[in-house]
Structures are given as C-alpha cells and as structure tokens.
Specification:
five-stranded mixed sheet, 320 residues, single chain, alpha/beta, globular
C-alpha cells in the first residue's frame, strides 16, 4: 500500500535554513519540515494532512515538525537517527498506522507521551481499483488491492473533520491549560470542513457523468461521499503496473460512460494516463491526493488544493 508526495513549499524550506531553525530543518539531507522556534507543545506529524490539522487547531500553542519532506513519498519514508531523536523529544506524535512502516516502528519504540493514530479517529473501508457506483452495482474484479484498508481518509472532508475532532481532543489532553483555544480553533476548522463539504455536494450534484479515471486509487472515500465512481488504473499502490486487461477495460468504460479525462498525480509520471488518454481520445489532468504541498500544488494549503480538485472534477465530469 503505497502513498505519495509533498510537504512545505521550497521557499519555506529555504527560509527555515536561512533562519537556522535547529538541526532538523528542511535544509538537512534527511530533512523534516520543522516549524519549531516559538515554544509551546512540541508536536511531530508524520505527513502533511496531519501537520495541517495540528497547526490549524493548535495555533500559536504548538510547534510542528513534519517527518516527510516536500516531494517525498510518505510510504517510502526512512527514519534517520536525527528524526528518531526528534521523536524522543516530542510531546505528541500524530501518524496514520500502516501508512508509513518506518514511522510505525519509530513511534512504537519512542517514549512520546501522546501517540495518536489518526486512522483510529474515523472508520476505514476496504477499497480496490473500483469504488462507487460501478463497484457497488456490479461484480467487478477489483484487482490485487481488493480488501485492503484504504488510508486516504483525508480526501473525504467529512471523515477528515472527524479526525480533526480527535486531534483536538488529544491536544487538549496533552495541554489542558490551552483547551479553550483548541476548542475555539476546532470550531473554526469545523466550519471550514462543513463549507468544503457543501461545495463538493453542490458542485458534483448535477454532472453529465459520474465516473472518473485515476492512475492511483486514492479518491475512493471522496467518490463514495459524493455519489461518484472512481475507476483506478492502479490500486492503492501508485507504482504498480496495470495489466493489459485492466487498460482495455478502462478504455471500453471511458467510451461507454462518457469519460473525458484521465487523472494523474503531480509527482508521478503521466505516461500511463497519457497512453490511455491517447488511445481513447481523452485529455489528462491532475487530481491531487494531497499528501504534501509543493510549488507544483494547485494551492497553498489543504482547503485550496481540495477546491482545485473540485474544479478539476467538475471540468472532467461536465456540468449540465
């Protein structure tokens, strides 16, 4: 089960180096994105979505270190000796169990007081290559990833809002004297998630087709939430090679369902997407699984990139 991508913008990393923010900044070869420097609760996040939640809820009372540097695949992260030491110093760590094996091992061996598995704060489902209408209505071959717990809960605003509530509870427990501020920040974030959910519901309610094709099965929860069907070239592992039969199936499905676009990810090759698109006369575009933010991201934070994803989906699915 592989998952990919990015974190703090390059300019932020350069600024961190220039300011000399400790030994574990983004200028290090094994770098972590480190926002320490103002005191407060010392928190480690395993990758960008969790960094976003902790910073939004914690505000000025938290200093967040992100273990996954910009452009790095979260799943393939290897924990350095410095990062291991960093974990030992932290007051709290937030991660997604079974997403980054090296993080799981390091967290288990660390003495961090507050260890929060974000996957335990909501419900996970088993997804294969097909999620949504087709998968629910037909007996399709879901591929080798069928039955694997899908970790991409952050791409469903409703589920991710549930995770946010759990993050808030953990911060309050770790730092009770600032509980009122955490509650206030959580309430503001709750409204942001509600508005994002409403935008997706309204934006995807009346489209010409409900089916979209991606090279990586990252958007299953989003598809289920908004009545869409995700058909993935690969399963949960974006590096796996699709079978010739799967490619033919997708080409036939694209013609039958009026699919216009094959989506790929910013930091992966568009070769497979381009091949399918050329064979059927489709276009390609980016749908961002938001595992990090880089200068290639269509937005500066979670909310902006999610709305860029909505725009891309509306264009691909067609509005009536």
């Amino acid at each position: 089960m592989n998952v990919r991508r990015r974190l703090i913008p390059g300019a932020a990393a350069v600024a961190a180096c220039a300011l000399g923010l400790g030994t574990l900044t983004a200028c290090s070869g094994s770098a972590v994105a480190d926002t320490r420097g103002h005191g407060g609760l010392d928190v480690v996040a395993s990758f960008y979505p969790l960094q976003y939640l902790v910073e939004e809820i914690g505000g000025t009372h938290v200093s967040v270190t992100n273990l996954t540097r910009p452009g790095q695949e979260p799943h393939d992260l290897e924990i350095s000796a410095r990062q291991t030491a960093r974990l030992q110093e932290a007051d709290a760590v937030f991660y997604v169990k079974n997403l980054q094996p090296a993080v799981d091992d390091a967290v288990a061996q660390s003495g961090v007081r507050t260890k929060v598995d974000a996957a335990s704060l909501t419900t996970l489902e088993k997804h294969g290559n097909e999620v949504g209408g087709h998968a629910a209505a037909h007996d399709h071959d879901e591929g080798e990833d069928a039955g694997t717990a899908d970790p991409h809960v952050w791409l469903d605003p409703v589920r991710f809002a549930q995770v946010a509530e759990g993050v808030s509870a953990a911060l309050k427990k770790a730092d009770p004297k600032h509980a009122a501020d955490y509650d206030r920040n959580t309430a503001a974030l709750r409204k942001k998630f509600a508005a994002l959910d409403e935008d997706f519901r309204e934006g995807l309610a009346d489209t010409r087709t409900k089916t979209f094709i991606t090279t990586h099965a990252a958007f299953g929860y989003l598809a289920e939430r908004y009545g869409l069907t995700e058909e993935a070239v690969n399963g949960l592992d974006p590096e796996s090679e699709p079978s010739a039969n799967r490619v033919r199936t997708l080409e036939n499905l694209a013609k039958a369902d009026g699919v216009t676009t094959v989506f790929y990810e910013t930091l992966t090759s568009d070769r497979t997407a381009g091949t399918i698109a050329r064979d059927v006369g489709l276009r390609t575009d980016v749908l961002d699984p938001l595992e990090g933010i880089t200068d290639k991201s269509r937005g500066d934070d979670y909310m902006q990139v999610m709305r860029s994803n909505l725009k891309a989906l509306r264009t691909a699915l067609g509005t009536k």
